[in-house]
């Protein structure tokens, strides 16, 4: 079933446009909330992914967070400069660079759950539990999960 036609398509009425607006709103609100931690929402994704063991290399992070490798390298450089992560060559494959959070990075990761849920909950405050569950279900359906 086609939901759009060339006659009915309007950019500002498209699902892609609305998803981009929603993403931009959440990103701006999360960035503002994380300002005191001196990280951005994208950097938060890196820190939490490393903290939770979801990814351990720049390549894995790039895939997981949909960030191109060039930008990922620059963000990792910033996090390393801030003393939040360390890079080390794999003993099994010298081409692989493993990433680990420093003690400072682990402490920062522990503070994020005090902040991020507040930002998301504020944006979702008009949703019932059922609507929230449906939104999640529909988004997962949309991305093919």
Can you characterise this structure?
With 145 residues, the chain is mainly alpha-helical. It has a single domain, classed as Arc Repressor Mutant, subunit A. The protein is built from six helices and two strands, in the order ααααββαα. The chain has helices spanning 15-34, 41-51, 58-65, 69-81, 103-123, 129-143; strands at residues 85-89, 97-101. The chain has a two-stranded antiparallel sheet. Helix 1 crosses helix 5 (103-123), helix 2 crosses helix 5 and helix 3 crosses helix 4 (69-81). The two termini are 19 Å apart. Residues 12-144 form the HTH marR-type domain. One of its GO terms (molecular function) is DNA binding.
If classified by CATH, what would the architecture be? Orthogonal Bundle
Uncertain segments are none
CATH topology: Arc Repressor Mutant, subunit A
Strand line-up of the largest beta sheet:
1-2
Shape: globular
The helix-strand sequence is: HHHHEEHH
Q: Measure the end-to-end span.
A: 19 Å
Looking at CATH, the homologous superfamily is Winged helix-like DNA-binding domain superfamily/Winged helix DNA-binding domain
Q: Could you name the CATH class?
A: Mainly Alpha
Q: Count helical runs.
A: 6
Average pLDDT, all residues:
95
Main sheet specs: 2 strands, antiparallel
Question: Rg, please?
Answer: 18 Å
- Range of strand content: 5-15%
The chain-level structural class is mainly alpha
Q: What is the number of independent domains?
A: 1
| Total DSSP E strands | 2
* Percent range of helical residues: 55-70%
């Amino acid at each position: 079933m086609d939901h759009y036609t060339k006659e009915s398509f309007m950019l500002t009425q498209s699902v892609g446009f609305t998803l981009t607006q929603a993403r931009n709103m959440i990103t701006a609100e999360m960035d503002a909330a994380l300002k005191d931690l001196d990280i951005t929402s994208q950097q938060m994704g890196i820190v939490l992914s490393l903290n939770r063991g979801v990814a351990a290399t720049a390549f894995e992070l790039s895939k997981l967070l949909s960030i191109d490798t060039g930008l990922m390298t620059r963000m990792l450089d910033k996090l390393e400069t801030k003393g939040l992560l360390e890079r080390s060559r794999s003993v099994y494959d010298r081409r692989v660079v493993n990433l680990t959070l420093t003690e400072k990075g682990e402490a920062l990761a522990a503070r994020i759950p005090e902040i991020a849920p507040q930002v998301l909950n504020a944006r979702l405050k008009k949703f019932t539990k059922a609507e929230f569950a449906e939104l999640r279900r529909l988004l997962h359906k949309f991305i093919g999960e």
